[in-house]
Recover the amino acids of this structure.
């Protein structure tokens, strides 16, 4: 077993890590960290009122002490669910100490030599960790809304060459770290602004769909326009995506390419059977009904149809704290292990 630590273990993403790593066949949680306010208490005590992903805090972590992030950590593999405001320098410090850091924060996503990992999308980018020049490394994962859109775009870009993308997102509250009861300001409401999110969707999509050439990332030449909205939903981001292609596909061509997409040959514990699930019903996918398809590890696509301005439009839905965060990072770590890089 490989012992792992979780930075930011008490937040929305941190608790997904704790949940998804229970009984993991390769990784064993041996260290939990959070802020000063949680440090020194047991995980069970800190999470008494905050745990939401299952009925109760898993027994295996209940009596574990929560440490302060920034301390020396006695394990080599770290999953980071720290806020971006502190993740940047802290993750760098740990990589310099030899830790292998799987980050969910945006701090290092666009760094030269730091890959953004989606196992099925940016497989060739993962090896860039070897060029970071530190004893350990940092590998990030994209923003949760970018993750699900790009999973759907990857096979379409390979097959038909994407020119332009326009996306309107409807993003869940847990994406902002809000879990449990819906706060009053979000009830009966849509907030048409998520700071920095639209810029992230543009930049990250271009990096993820780009290549690695001579040890450098080369962005894909794709125009992306994004409008991001926070909606009163607990989990799951739903996105309306319109795409123009160089080689115009039919609706049936698009469905076939999405359904057949399954590029990972490695047998990984968290790998979904189908990374993209296509639904035919005219009113699906729906957030509440479909976010847990493939245990939250798939991007669910539906309403694939022709568009009279772009070529094709569709809806994509995905779980933001599972494939969009903790589950995506765990899958990346599993892939790194099979690549011999852990
Ligand atoms: P969150 O719920 O606010 O949790 C933040 C975690 O970081 C908590 O464990 C918190 O500990 C800890 N923390 C806060 N300030 C700290 C400090 N100064 N020193 C040490 N630890 C500190 O945030 P989240 O939604 O889980 O997001 C975590 C990261 O993942 C963010 O960078 C976010 O952008 C990214 N992300 C989130 C999602 C999502 O769907 N939520 C998806 C993709 C990526 P305390 O409990 O002790 O305060």
């Amino acid at each position: 077993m490989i012992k792992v630590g979780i930075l930011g273990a008490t937040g929305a993403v941190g608790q997904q890590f704790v949940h998804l790593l229970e009984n993991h066949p390769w990784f064993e949680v041996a260290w939990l960290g959070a802020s000063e306010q949680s440090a020194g208490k047991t995980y069970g005590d800190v999470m008494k009122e905050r745990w939401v992903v299952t009925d109760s805090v898993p027994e295996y972590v209940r009596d574990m002490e929560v440490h302060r992030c920034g301390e020396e950590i006695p394990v080599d593999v770290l999953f980071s669910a720290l806020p971006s405001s502190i993740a940047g320098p802290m993750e760098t410090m740990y990589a310099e100490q030899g830790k292998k850091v799987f980050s969910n924060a945006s701090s290092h996503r666009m760094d030269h030599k730091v890959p953004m990992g989606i196992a099925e999308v940016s497989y060739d980018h993962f090896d860039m960790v070897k060029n970071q020049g530190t004893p350990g490394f940092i590998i990030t994962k994209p923003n949760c809304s970018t993750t699900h859109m790009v999973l759907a775009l990857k096979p379409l870009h390979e097959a038909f060459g994407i020119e332009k993308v326009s996306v309107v997102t409807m993003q869940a509250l847990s994406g902002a770290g809000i879990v449990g009861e819906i706060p009053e300001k979000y009830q009966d409401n849509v907030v048409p602004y998520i700071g920095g999110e639209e810029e992230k969707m543009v930049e990250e999509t271009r990096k993820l769909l780009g290549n690695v050439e001579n040890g450098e990332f080369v962005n894909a030449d794709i125009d992306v326009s994004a409008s991001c909205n926070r909606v009163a939903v607990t989990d799951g981001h739903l996105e309306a995506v319109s795409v123009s292609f160089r080689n115009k596909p039919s609706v049936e061509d698009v469905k076939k390419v999405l359904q057949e997409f399954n590029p990972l040959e490695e047998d990984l514990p968290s790998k979904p059977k189908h990374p993209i699930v296509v639904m035919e019903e005219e009113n699906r996918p729906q957030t509440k009904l479909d976010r847990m398809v493939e245990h939250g590890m798939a991007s669910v696509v539906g309403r694939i149809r022709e568009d009279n301005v772009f070529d094709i439009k569709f809806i994509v839905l995905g779980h933001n704290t599972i494939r969009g965060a903790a589950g995506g990072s765990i899958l990346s770590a599993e892939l790194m292990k099979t690549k011999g890089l852990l």
